[in-house]
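Protein fold
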Amino acid sequence: KRQSMNRVREIETDKPGSPGADRLPIGVVADPFGQYRLPFDDATFDVVVSTEVLEHVANYADTVSELHRIMKPGAVFIHMFPPKFALLEGHTNIPFGGGFKPDWWLKLWSRAGMRIWHKKGCPADEYYTWTRHYLDNCVNYLTKQELIDSFSNDFDLEFVEGELFKISPKTRVFISPSIYSNFRGRIMYGVRKIDGRLSNTA
């Protein structure tokens, strides 16, 4: 939940009553210029995991730098990203809305009755206005190559959607890991490079 433009004081899940729905104070500070600072010492973590979080990051350079700083050399992460052209953009339910969002497309689906769960009953014009603002200001979907470019200087990377296919029958409706990656979700595994920024300045 955002309390101001400059400071995030807590995290709150979208759906009341869902697991972890309590507010979690985190004290993450973001200055007005978009820089991010996590409240942890250098080289603190062995493992970092996020699930459909980083698509809300505006400044990937600062974010990756902070992840690199707080992770130990050789530490690992797993980040799950919605793809830019997911069949349904997960916050608005607009088809392909993460990467294709001209006004006529958003208006078409708003008038057709497409709604996210917490906007059911919202008038079409109001829903269009909300989706326009949300997609322009609250999400930042990167392509697979853009993710690689953002992380590869500091982390050795591998996309591991195939591992999910081995353990989750539900994913197999997408036929192949490649189709799943392009239209449902990307799973990026990374290892913090030993010779990265922190090692060079230590």
Remarks:
- Residues 99 and 132 are 13 Å apart (CA to CA).
- The first strand starts at residue 7 and ends at 11.
